[in-house]
Amino acid sequence: MTGKRQLPVEGQHAHRQDLRTFMGVEAWVFDLDNTLYPHEADLFSQIDEQIALYVQKTLDLNRSDAMAHQKALYHEYGTTLRGLMTTQNIDPDDYLAFVHDIDYSGLEPNPELGKAIEALPGKKFIFTNGDRPHAERTAAALGISDHFEDIFDIVSADLIPKPNRETYDKFIDITGISPARAAMFEDLPKNLKVPHQLGMRSTLIIPKGSRQVFQESWDLEGDPYPHVDFVTEELTGFLKAVMGAFR
After folding, report:
1. Are strands 150-152 and 201-205 parallel, antiparallel or unpaired?
2. What pLDDT, in 10s, does the model give residues 201-214?
3. CA atoms of 140 and 72, how far apart (whole Å)
4. Structural domain range at position 80
5. Residues 117 and 237 in one domain
6. Is the pLDDT reported for residue 8 higher than 90?
7. 114/86 same-domain check
């Protein structure tokens, strides 16, 4: 596809390249939060609240100061966990258990997503900055647990989060995948830079209803995300479209 890129509209998903570029992919790598479930499920906001509460209790701060400090740690260290480990020497296991102590009842089984993932040829992985128990509970709530080869979590990454290059290298080393024959799905553009550099097909998941805002940003900035090959608001439909392109 040439010329000005088009973001997805109903019934359309590719905006930059032909979906047939996914032919030959043997490893399908999915972020977890706000990727395998929609942003509007509002699950991650609970985690964000728990993180702020952990910071508040650990540093004896008021609510607003704790939230501000949390964001500062996130931006400086990549995750609040890494920031607190560096500055406060906290126990990462205690932190991970606390921040993922949330209510999953808002997540409903998504059999259509399960079918779409199952239909993909090759192996499928969850690659998350969260921990394995959170990923397992989330996948179970969605009814998609059986479709994944493995979960690569923040503990597997030695607590070094995406988008650090060494984390992707370790993921590739452990799973044995070939980046040139892999595809990655993420809700954060920065986490797709390394996969794109490594040769993976990269797909950005954006919240439903944000297409117009995203398009305006794209128009104003030219090409702010050259490492993003595809954009979609709806993962299930996108995966179905990918499989349809193989026929």
Report:
1. unpaired
2. 999 999 876 655 55
3. 33
4. 43-99
5. yes
6. no
7. no
Tokens of 117: 């993932």
User: What pTM was computed for the model?
Assistant: 0.87
Q: What are 121's two structure tokens?
A: 């040829």
Amino acid at 28: W
The residue count of the chain comes to 247
Same-domain pairing of 86 and 171: no
Instruction: Give residue 237's pLDDT band: very low, low, confident or very high (50, 70, 90).
Output: very high
Number of domains in the chain: 2
First to last CA, the chain: 19
The label of the residue with tokens 């995966």 reads 239
62 and 56 Cβ atoms separated by less than 8 Å:
yes
Q: Which of 27, 225, 239 is nearest to 127 (CA)?
A: 27
Asked if residues 204 and 187 have their Cβ atoms less than 8 Å apart, the reply is: yes
CATH number reported for the structural domain that contains residue 85 in this entry: 1.10.150.450
Distance (Å, whole) CA 132 – CA 69: 26
The residues near 84 (Cβ < 8 Å, ≥ 6 apart) are 54, 55, 58, 73, 90, 95
**4 inside domain:** no
Residue 71 has a CB neighbour count (10 Å cut-off) of 15
Q: Is the peptide bond before 224 cis (omega within 30 degrees of 0)?
A: no
